[in-house]
Amino acid sequence: MAIEMNKEILSITQRIVERSKGSRQAYLAKIDAAKSTTVHRANLSCGNLAHGFAACGKSDKDVLRGINHSDIAIVSAYNDMLSAHQPYETYPEIIKEAVRETGGVAQFAGGVPAMCDGVTQGQPGMDLSLMSRDVIAMSSAVALSHNMFDGALMLGICDKIVPGLLIATMTFGHLPTVFIPAGPMPSGIPNKEKARVRQQFAKGEIGEDKLLEAESSSYHAPGTCTFFGTANSNQLVVEVMGLHLPGASFVPPNTQLREELTKAAARQVTRLTQQSGNYMPVGKMIDEKSIVNAIVALLATGGSTNLTMHIIAFARAAGIIINFQDFNDLSNAVPLITRIYPNGSADVNHFQQAGGMALLFKELIGAGLLHQDVNTICGPGLSRYTKQPELIDGKLQWVDSVDVSGDPEVIATTAKPFKADGGLKVLKGNLGTSVLKTSSLREGSFVIKAPAVVFEDQHELETAFKAGELEKDFVAVVRFQGPKARGMPELHKLTPPLGVLQDKGFKVALVTDGRMSGASGKVPAAIHLCPEALDGGLIAKVKNGDMIMVDGESGELTLLVSEQELAQRENSQFNVNGHHQGMGRELFGFMRRNLSTADTGACSLFEGQND
């Protein structure tokens, strides 16, 4: 029996289609012009081609001399400092052998930088984090620019890395592309325990030795951090768009199942090339419905707010125009059906054990919340994604998944959700437009009306907290953190002190033109504020003691000061104070100056992006 699609989601999708009509048409024309009727290397001169396969072995050279088999690019974010990306060290040889079995060749086309927000939180390097996404996109473009390749395999997981790879993927939309994950590390100490220890340290109750012990027990092995932050939100989004093999996102690294999934992904991309007779360029595979599916799944699971900017950016690369209001309206139509930290106490391993992605697909499809008339790397429709991968007699197979959650405290049903909406609210008012994650908020903290305490650096707030100056109701205004001012660093280090004050019974909230971590959500935070202070946003006129309304129910974000008073005030001026120097920040001035607003993706790569 056909499942009727949710009418509100259909309506929102249609308005995105209409809004994107011109840009999408131009994009599809661009990728049509870039495709080849034969292998792409056939367009190279003999000198070009000789350079392109000079380092290959004889058998690979023999394949690449002909025009019958594909050359697959490997683009990897491997480095062995990032736990999530360390397992990628061995992937290229596994992939090359798997592609050889199909008669083709895989070449390591290029590596991309991969920085860890967990390492750089509160450090100068965090100012580069968001901009690294655009660097990754450009690095991937360089890797693919040789026109040797007929398909691509993207190896990346964490915060800005997958969005950067996706921007490049959409830019090279004429190529079939498959993403290959590496999986989460084993569960460490419970996330609530980790958060408790952090707050103890913020209060001065324990020293750095105890804090490091707790952190090292949480982040302790190869694999993705297990909370549902940006990295794991990325994996979910990529799978829901059909760019992963079904059920691949959360299989642990260094297991036989993980290796077989990697081999299968490598073989799968060769089935989508022009030479296979089943050509499926990724730019046509991913459309407006695919993007809406990604947002729906993100909202249904309470995923990272960072994706509000990243989805806007990589959709734009495919000619699809998404805005904050789309997120808000889809959130109203989508129930929250998972509880994964910071929305609950479970981690992604518990989510996987409770039914994982296959069960999530079943729930969302059954409620008419996902478009099924989409294409994936496995063919049309989403039915394959309701099955889960298993090794049976040493062979990879997909089998029926559970129909009922193994833990209803982790995965609920759409009929009885944890929350009637997806827990994301767009706030608007005289201060501008911002995003508020409500899925993790406690009852009673959705509406905060309190006097402002203004900071122009997150460390100023920490200092005030330690001095005992914040024992009161207040709205912390942390400004000049926006894209053009600072590159939009995450302000996750503010979570422990603000959480301590909240636990003491004070009504606290945050308003900022910066970002919070994908692991944040306990404290109401109006983030990604547009326009930012450096662009003349009203946040630049806020003074200590001004009353501010942050309303996660009505969607109001208002500075409660008369227009006459505000007209007499001058904007506070940004004190660079070394923020653009050191730790490589001086190299990024050109990019920082050209970043668009948060609600257009905070991206430096698209002309006319603020029009």
Give a structural overview.
The model has no long low-confidence stretch (mean pLDDT 94). The chain is globular. The longest helix has 16 residues, at 129-144. Helix content is 37%, strand content 14%. The chain has helices spanning 7-19, 21-34, 46-53, 58-65, 91-101, 117-120, 129-144, 161-171, 191-202, 208-218, 230-240, 256-270, 282-285, 288-300, 306-317, 324-333, 348-354, 356-366, 458-466, 483-486, 495-503, 563-568, 589-593; strands at residues 71-76, 105-111, 151-155, 177-180, 375-376, 379-380, 387-392, 395-400, 424-429, 432-437, 447-455, 474-478, 508-512, 525-530, 547-551, 556-559. It has an eight-stranded mixed sheet. A four-stranded parallel sheet has the order 2-1-3-4, sandwiched between helices. Helix 7 (129-144) packs parallel to helix 8 and helix 14 packs antiparallel against helix 15 (306-317). With 611 residues, the chain is an alpha/beta fold. The two termini are 45 Å apart. The chain contains 23 helices and 16 strands. It folds into two domains: 7-186 and 221-400, no CATH class; 424-600, IlvD/EDD C-terminal domain-like (Glucose Oxidase, domain 1).
How would you briefly describe this protein structure?
By secondary structure, this protein is of the alpha/beta class. It has 23 helices and 16 strands. Helices cover 37% and strands 14% of the residues.
